[in-house]
Amino acid sequence: MRLVVRGGEVVGPDGPVRADVGVEDGRIVVVGPDLEAPGDARIVDATGCWVGPGLVDLHAHLREPGHEEAETIESGARAAARGGYSAVVAMPNTEPALDTAAMVAFVQARGREACVEVAVAGAVTQGRRGELLAPMAEMAALGVRLFTDDGRGVEDPLVLRRAMEYARGLGARIAEHCEDERLAAGGVMHEGALSGRLGLVGRPALAEELMVARDLELARLTGCPLHVMHLSSARALTLVVAARAEGLPVTCEVTPHHLTLDETAVEGYDPLFKVHPPLRPRADVEALVAGLAGGAIDAVATDHAPHAPETKDRTFDEAPPGMLGLEHAAALTLEALGGAAASAAAFFALLSRHPARIAGLDVADPRSGLGAHGGRVAAGEDANLVVFDPRRRWRASREDLASRARNTPYHGRELTGRARALLVAGRVVLDAEELA
Ligand code: DOR
Predict the structure, then answer these.
(1) What local confidence, expressed as pLDDT, does residue 405 receive?
(2) Which tens digit of pLDDT belongs to each residue from 319-349?
(3) Each residue's pLDDT tens digit, 155-204
(4) Given the CA of residue 150, which atom of ligand 1 is nearest to it?
(5) Which are the contacts of 154, defined by CB distance < 8 A and separation ≥ 6?
(6) Residues paired with 147 in a beta bridge
(7) How far is the CA of 7 from the centre of ligand 1 (A)?
(8) Which atom of ligand 1 is nearest to the CA of 152?
(9) Which candidate, 27, 98, 283, 413, has a CA 20 to 30 Å from the CA of 363?
């Protein structure tokens, strides 16, 4: 045994159990109480913490290639590690887009040098223009399991139908940014009484709901697994829940910001609160929080969207949408689940087990070279582990981020819960809250 995670509560199906975890050669070799460690073994202190599978983010914009001034694969991975993530799925809305095998191979190669595992989502269409299908089979041959044009949805239903038919045959899943841009056109916040009062053009919830409804019907027609990204409207959640009850292969994620902020955050016209889909009214936030605890929502995903200060510091109308997520998501999810008293099993289901399954990261894949995530903390499993302190109180700060960007809407907010340590393929990349 080279390493022992000592003194924590290992999160299993029946809740947390006091146990140590022994790790060697990238794998968990033993789990049990009061393990004897050889004198030269490294000890990772987990006292008072949950020890669970490393978190998995289904939705991270790492900006490389094209916008390295905002984030790189390396800096994004460091932000992920501080957040407790052992794996992230990199979004393809880079410049150029990740729409060929060569682009996927480039990000995979950079990802192998990063401190957490980086899975790649491929674009559905060439250049994410929504017209011609990207070579999905060639990307799937490199282990790509999720295809999306995120940043926008696939507007043409025939293009999406064909994409779903191909994706199904490839054993892949289509992830959709559900907002019909023709309905949302020019909108910068949620459409309602508040957008009228603020004099800002609104993006109606209907833009999201219509696209969710259409996509669910295409999933029904094609049998292709559909993943609804950053779901933000209560009505859209109702549609997903009904479709799932009918047996359709649909999953959905919500972001920490749609769980913890509402539309009133934009009253000061601060572009830090501009995001797509937009922050919604309180009733939507409450419906999402209820769906989180009740099992209607499969996963919490960050939509980590770094933007350099010179682009984000513009008027509300002109600034690009998006906010940072990776470094604060776990604490915000815990808050939405009810704080330190929340169930550890629910926390890890939403942030690790389900997202790993949705991204196809629950089994190791020789094509991508990525290990297994989101599994049990048990002998024989890959050592992708987080040590998470659910009672740790701290204050979010834009000065204290591993991300290259600073566009967090949570500066100054009191948080509870923080990753203390992280193992990725058995390597300690975070210990005592410090990156290696
Ligand atoms: O607000 C957003 N920003 N929503 C998206 O879907 C894309 C993202 C980005 O890439 O900045």
Answers:
(1) 98
(2) 999 999 999 999 999 999 998 789 999 999 9
(3) 999 999 999 999 999 999 999 999 999 999 999 999 999 999 999 999 99
(4) 6
(5) 124, 125, 130, 160, 163, 176
(6) 122, 174
(7) 40
(8) 6
(9) 98
Give all domains of the chain, ordered by start, each with its CATH number.
Answer: 3-50+379-435 (2.30.40.10), 55-359 (3.20.20.140)
- Whether ligand 1 lies within 6 angstroms of the CB of 258 is answered as no
Q: Pick the catalytic residue from 303, 362, 382, 389.
A: 303
408: CA distance to ligand 1 center in Å? 14
How many Å lie between the centroid of ligand 1 and the Cα of residue 60? Answer: 10
Q: What is the pLDDT of residues 193-246, one digit of tens each?
A: 999 999 999 999 999 999 999 999 999 999 999 999 999 999 999 999 999 999
How far does the centroid of ligand 1 lie from the alpha carbon of residue 115, in Å?
A: 24
Nearest-CA residue for atom 6 of ligand 1:
151
Ligand 1 pocket residue status of 93, Cβ below 6 Å: yes
pTM, to two decimals: 0.98
User: Hey, CA dihedral for 47, 53, 58, 60, is it positive or negative?
Assistant: positive
Both structure tokens of 185:
């056109």
Whether the upstream peptide bond of residue 65 has omega within 30° of 0, thus cis, is: yes
Pair type for strands 250-254 and 226-228: parallel
Split at pLDDT 50, 70, 90, the class of 12 is confident
For residue 150 and ligand 1, the question of a CB distance below 6 A is answered with yes
303 is annotated as an active-site residue: yes
